[in-house]
Each structure stands twice: as structure tokens, then as C-alpha cells.
Amino acid sequence: MDSKPSSVRKRIVHGTAWALVVRLLSGGLGLALYGLIARLMSPEEVGGYFLGLSLATVGATLGQFGLPQTLTRRVAASLATGDEAEARAVVGTAFAFALIPVSLVALALSAIVVPVVADELVGSSHLGTLALLVGIWAAALAFQSLISDAFRGFHKLALAALTGGLVNGLVAVGVSVTVLGILWAHSGEARVAMVVGVVVAGLVLNVAIMGSILVRHVKTSGCTADQGAILQGLIVDAWPLAINATALYLGTNAALWVVAIYLDEAQVALYGVAFRLVVLTSLPAKVVGGAVSSTIADLHSRGETKRLERMVATIACAVGVPAIAGLILLTAFGREVLELVYGSTYIAAYPILAALLIGEIIRTLLGPAMLALIMTGHGRDVANVTTGTLLSVVLAAIAVVEPWGLLGVAIVNAAGMAVQGIAFWMLARRRCGFSTHVRPMYVAKLNRTDRTS
User: Do the beta carbons of residue 40 and residue 180 sit within 8 Å?
Assistant: First the structure.
């Protein structure tokens, strides 16, 4: 019997189990963090916080230049051919290059983007006080995500989950919850700049700790790999993913900005708390997807399409069935959850939460199509779909925000999520040669075949 499939399966199961435990802990702390934020500040300041977070996240995505998933794929491909020295060189080259776009984006955010947006676009005095912090926030998020994906490429899945990505890692969120919890117990309130400062400090500490651990794993001294050729390959692979990732985060944040421009910061707070709750519910799917991304690249580089299809089908079922059940439960008891996490002020966000959850359910049913496309080298197709969805969502949200308000914007965003998921699913069938949607009967048939063979 071939031991390779067993080895791959064992690695995935073991790494995913650890990653899931870490992400569930950080997700629970994330709920506590947002609960503290909602209780420490007024709705208008909470709205300013979410606008700052949105700019930092989009800035981090732009500054990364598509490198995180490229890094995972290139490192995994090098390891699949037994070239560990090249894998290490890829990581070193990627981080050296990333310093340039990340620094430029952080500087632009602090010096130009945040002041102009705060004063001229949304008229937010709360966002205006965060100019310097948003730049640092974006840089810390960018490097946190790069470190996480470097660990993932080396199949260090527990360390990848511990680091976090464009969501806070366990150390970062733990520090933030501890400090803000003390502030809440002591005074019961805090200004938005203080809250963001605490969150950013936790992120910087996390980057410093996990970065030092990565350095011990990646030592490029004595490496004879052509780093110029590596850099050229990284840029060629990364730029379509940079467009995709930026358009994806602009798309998911576009509705928030339409609300900010046409309504007010209190409405932004309502939309923000609902949206963040949906993001937290998607963490298990992201954990499993992140855990297997390097394995997808590995199997694709070796031409093992059948094993790749089986693995994607199993992932979609293992993640999709419990995730959909959880999303349906959250839809049913959303009012109670909003009151428990954020307080009674935010029960009014329930219609927005319900609409967004419906979009998330449809996207989850369609499985990890985008991940399969990216990790098999079809980043340009993903970028085209994401860009088209972004433009459609923005135009439709602008059209409905005044007559239909928050609910209209949420419905548009949910529809965009669903349409995007369908497009990725169709592309995966065409480019990869298999479907990615949740197929419990198909997976059950595979398991019966394995038991009888």
C-alpha cells in the first residue's frame, strides 16, 4: 500500500486539528474584543473604528502585492520537488521585496488617504484621529499575513494559525482583550484612538514574536538559488493575485463605505458589527482552507488530479455541512447573539446580519472554488471575477442606499457574495476539471470504496 496518501492525510488532519483549536480560541477572543469595543465607545466611535479597520485591511492587502498565497504555492512546490534551499530562498526574497510596497502603502495611508477620506469623503472626526495608527495597523497586518502563509508553505499549520492572517492572531487578540478588559473594568469607556492603539500594539507584538520564530526556520545563508529569477517568478505569479485580493477586500468593504458616505457613523457601526460577526463565523472554513492550500499546490505540481479532486470534495463536505448548520442557527438566533456580544444597542443590526448570512450560506455551499483556482495557477481568472463583482456591488449599493438604507446595501452585498461564489464554482469546473460544491453523497461513496478496497 502506498504510504504517501496516508502521510499527506495524517499531516492535513493533525495540522488542521491544531489550527482549528487555535482559531477557535482566537475567534472566541475576537468576539470578546468586539464586545468590549462596542461597550467602551459610542456607536459613532465604533463606526470610526470600523472605518479605520477597513482602510488598514485594504491597505495591508494592497501592500502585500499578492505575495501570501503566491508564497504558500511556491514554497510548497519547491518542497514537493525536494528543493528545500529554494523554498527558503523564496521566503527570504518575498519578505525583502514586500518591504517596499508595504512601506509605501503605510506611508500613503497615514499621510494622505486617511486625512482626505476623513475630512473630504465621510466627514469623520473619529477616523481623522487615527491617521498614523492606520498606517502602522496596515503594515502589521500585512507582515502578519505573510508570516502566516510562509509557515503554511512549510506545512507548519499550527504556527500559521497561531500567527493569524488579515485577522488577529492569538497573541494579538489576547493582548488586546486583556488591556481593553482592564480599561472597561476600571473606567467603562475609552476613546477610539486609545482602543486602536491597543489593538495595533498587540499586532506589532505578535509580528515580532512569530517573525522571530520564522527566522529560525528560514536561514538563506549559503543558498545558491538565483534570487533574481525567484523574484521575477514571484512578481509574475503575484500580480494577478494582488488585483484579486485587493478587489476582493474592496468588494467586501465597499458596502461599509457606501454606508459611511451616504449615511452616518452610527449606521456604519450597525453594519460593521453584523459584518464582523459573519467574518468570525467563516473562521473554521478559512482554517481548513489554509491548512490544505499548500497540499493542493503540492498535488497539482505532481499532476495528481484525482487525489486533488477527492481532497477538495472531502474538504467542502467536512467544512460545509457543520458551517451551514451553524450559519442557519445564527440566522435563527441572531438577535440574541447580537445582544449578548455587543449589547442591546446593536439588536437593530439583525436584518443586516440575516441578509449577509444568507449570502455566506450560498458561498459555503459552493465550496473552496477560489482556493482551488488560486492554488492551481488560475489567479488571473479569479482576479477577473473579483474585479467584476466589485464594480457591480459598488454600483448597486449606491443605487439602493438612499431608498432602502442599510438593509438594501446588505442585500446587495449578499447577492454579490453569491454571484461571485457561483462564478468561481463554474470556473473551477472548467479550469480544474472538477466541482467544489458540498457533496455529502459523493464523499460517502468515496469512503465506502476506501473501506472495501
Answer: yes
